Amino acid sequence: MIQSDKRPVQSDFANITDYSKQCPDGARKFFAFVHFTDDSTCLWSNIFSFNRSFALMLAIEKFGDFLGYISSIIIHEQD
Fold first, then answer.
1. How far apart are the first and last CA of the chain?
2. What pTM does this model have?
3. Number of structural domains, the chain?
4. Please, where are the H alpha helices in the chain?
5. C-alpha 48 chain-centroid distance
6. Is residue 74 part of a domain?
7. Are 9 and 41 in contact (CB under 8 A)?
8. For FRET with 25, which of 4, 9, 16, 47 sits at 20 to 30 Å CA-CA?
9. Residues of the domain holding 50
């Protein structure tokens, strides 16, 4: 049986991006998908950093109060 891809249900997805921020000179832009144990997902964009490791550290700091409920954090670089 072929099944279609499962997309996040709107109620299980949150976007906490601050689109008013501007990227500083020399910094790279990253975004993070944070997946929680209840199968919900959160997008955080406009993470400005000089490398992926520091972007991950910023994401861990941002979601520090919820670390017990996080199943994964995926960092992507924006072009």
1. 37
2. 0.79
3. 1
4. 52-62
5. 12
6. yes
7. no
8. 16
9. 33-79
